[in-house]
Write a structure and sequence with these properties.
The chain is built from 5 helices and 4 strands, in the order βααβαβαβα. By secondary structure, it is an alpha+beta fold. Helix 1 packs across helix 2. The longest helix is centred in the middle third of the chain and has 21 residues. It is globular. It starts with 16 loop residues before the first strand and ends with a helix.
C-alpha cells in the first residue's frame, strides 16, 4: 500500500514524507513517548499505543526549495495519510488517523528518531473493524450550500 503512494499528487515529485511502521514492542516506545509528552503514567501511554496491532507514523520530511512551499509539501504528506486510510479500509482493515499535541513534541521526535527538519503529521492505527451491529453515530450530512459553490 505504501508503494501506491507514488501516485499521490506531488509538485516536482519531492516525496516529502515517510512512514514509520510500529508493531509489537515498538508500539511501547511510542507509548512511553506519548505518556511523557502528555505528563501521564507510562502504562497509560503504552495502552494507547497498543490499541491496534500496527501503528503507522506519518512523517513530513520537507525539502529545502524555493519552488515548493512548506504548506504544499505538508499537503502531500496529508494526502499520503488519507490515501493509506482509504486503501486500508478497501482491503478490509479498520484504521483511525490520530493527531494531537504530542505529535509535535521534542520527546516524540527523539523517540522516533526524526531528522532535524522532519516532524510528525500523526499516526494511523490499523486493526480490525469493530462489530457492525454495535450502535455508532452516523456522520452528519454535509451542508452542500456551504461546501459546494459555483461561480
Amino acid at each position: 500500500m505504501v508503494a501506491a503512494m507514488a501516485s499521490i499528487a506531488d509538485h516536482s515529485g519531492l516525496r516529502p514524507w515517510r512512514v514509520i511502521a510500529l508493531r509489537g514492542d515498538a508500539r511501547k516506545r511510542l507509548g512511553r513517548a506519548l505518556a511523557k509528552a502528555n505528563g501521564t503514567r507510562a502504562e497509560k501511554g503504552i495502552a494507547k499505543a497498543c490499541r491496534a496491532p500496527l501503528v503507522l507514523t506519518v512523517v513530513v520530511s520537507p525539502h529545502k526549495t524555493k519552488k515548493i512551499p512548506l504548506w504544499e509539501q505538508e499537503a502531500v504528506a496529508s494526502g499520503v495519510a488519507h490515501s493509506l486510510g482509504l486503501l486500508l479500509h478497501e482491503a478490509g482493515w479498520g484504521s483511525m488517523w490520530r493527531t494531537g499535541a504530542p505529535a509535535r513534541s521534542k520527546v516524540m521526535r527523539r523517540a522516533l528518531g526524526l531528522g532535524k527538519r522532519e516532524y510528525l503529521l500523526g499516526w494511523i492505527y490499523v486493526g480490525g473493524i469493530p462489530d457492525r451491529d454495535r450502535k455508532s453515530k452516523p456522520r452528519k450530512p454535509l451542508d452542500l450550500s456551504r461546501h459546494l459553490t459555483e461561480l
